[in-house]
Structure formats: C-alpha cells, structure tokens
C-alpha cells in the first residue's frame, strides 16, 4: 500500500505494508470513543441486571424468562464486543489477525444465537396464547433449558462451518497490516442469510400473526365479561398477564428485526462482500445498539424488572432468603 508523506500509518515501522490510519479531528475521535464506550458499558450493565434478576429470584424461574436470560447473555457478550468497535474508528486493528478472527467469529455466533432466541420466544408466546392448555403441560423448565442449550450449540457448529475459511487461516483476506476485514463468500453468505435471517423472520412473522389474531379475540372477550364470578375473573387476570407479556416480547422482536435488517441488506447486497470501514461500523453499531435497547424495553414494560433492580441496587439481594422475595 502506497502512503503519501503526510499520511499516518497504523504501523509506521512496517512502511508500505501497513494500513493507513483514517485522519479525523481530535475532538471527533474523542467524542466517538466516549459514545462507543458509554453504550458498551450501558449494554453490559443493563443486561447484567437482567441476568442477575432472572437467575436469582425464584419467582422468575419460568420457561419464558429462561429464554429472556439466554437473550440477555448474548446481549451482554455483545456489549463486551462493542469495546473493540473503537478500533475501527480510525481504521486500525492492533490486536492481530487471530483476535480479529475471534472477534468476527463471536460476532456471528452471537447474531445467530440471538435470532434463535427470538424464534424460541415466538414459539413460547404462540403456545401460551393460542394453546394455553398445551402450554401448561408441555412447556417445562427442563425443555426450555434444553432448547436454549441446543440454540447455542447449533449456532457454534453452524458458524464454525460457515467461517471455516477465516478460522483456518486468520488474516487471509486482509490487504494490509492493521486491517480486520469481514469477508462473506457467496455460499457462506447465502447460508447465513437463510438460517440467521430469512428462516427466523419467516417463523417469527407466521407465529406472531397468529398470536396477534388470537390475542385480539381474547382481549375483546375479556372486556366483554368484566362482571364474571371471582373464579372466572382470576382466570382472566392470568390471560391478561399472558397478553401483556406477548405485547412486550413482540416489541422486543420488532426492535430486533429493525436493528438486524440493515446488516443483511448491506453485507449481502452482492456476491462476495467485504465489510470494513464506515459501512461495517454503522451496521454493526446498529446491531450492538439493539442489545442495549432490550433491557430498556423490559424496564418500561416489565414491573418485575423494576422491582428486581431495586433489590439489586440497594444490595437487598445480599440478604438471606432474598431469592424468595416477591418481585411480581
């Protein structure tokens, strides 16, 4: 790579083998680094609250919350990865080819795991709203745990096969020293598009359309039978709770799709697509931002999350038998 006399190299000692650092005003670089670090810390902190809440309080040990726990773990890892995004601001990667490959591999694994978690959440809501009797007998804690484990294992295996070219020889697609290129060939890109985007979206849309139709009917039925006996009324409270949970998780899924779609629109717009520079930074940051939004959605729409956070920040969670506290 030819560099002009006034250009700044990522590795000056390597001369023309080094990538050229992107020149930006000092204040712009400083503000960008502060923004990235802030979002990363906020994402880690908020999702850690979700992880602690669901893991600690016994009332929250439900199949649905276990799926949310899996999503929170993936979002937590996204927050950690987001720190490395600061290295792409000036176009220089200083951690070497191996760490670049690890970063890329983890990013893809987490993306596919998040998509899998969204599908599991959609299936959970479909059974809870459309088949409540089946849900209470078939959807158990053990089966939810097994589903989550399979989701993570399948994501690891799928992305290992999908990125085998990069994993076998880290840095093979870098054009200069200091670059961390994201490369998707046609076959790998098509597989990633199919199993991480098209299939999950198709399943989610079909299930939630059905859930929406049934939920609307149930909401009308509840409003038209307000003066029922107490036993019937208690049953309506349960159904109302399920409908509220469905609405909340529907918001989570819609936000997820909005944040993930631009990545696939950009990364898979052609055959062999090379993602680096500002385009990669934008679509990846949008995906990372989704991981910060999920806990905020819980905070606004889930009363149990607010109560759990109060226990955590006031250190009441350290008291004996705090796991049995009422947070619902």
Description of the molecule:
By secondary structure, the chain is mainly alpha-helical. The protein has one domain: Rhodopsin 7-helix transmembrane proteins (Rhopdopsin 7-helix transmembrane proteins), CATH 1.20.1070. The protein is 71% helix and 2% strand. The chain contains ten helices and two strands; from the N terminus they run H-H-H-H-H-H-E-H-H-E-H-H. The chain has helices at residues 26-56, 63-82, 96-130, 132-138, 141-162, 164-168, 186-224, 230-267, 277-301, 303-313; strands spanning 182-184, 273-275. A two-stranded antiparallel ribbon has the order 1-2. It is globular and about 75 Å long. The chain starts with 25 loop residues before the first helix and ends in a 15-residue tail after the last helix.
- Residue-averaged pLDDT, rounded? 79
Q: Strand portion, in percent? A: under 5%
* Whole-angstrom Rg: 23 Å
CATH class: Mainly Alpha
How many individual domains? 1
Percent of residues in helices: over 70%
Q: What characterizes the major β-sheet?
A: 2 strands, antiparallel
Query: Which stretches of 5+ consecutive residues score pLDDT under 50?
Result: 1-6, 229-237, 271-276
Q: What's the CATH topology name? A: Rhopdopsin 7-helix transmembrane proteins
CATH architecture: Up-down Bundle
Class by alpha and beta content: mainly alpha
Number of DSSP strands? 2
What would the principal axes of the Cα set say about the shape? globular
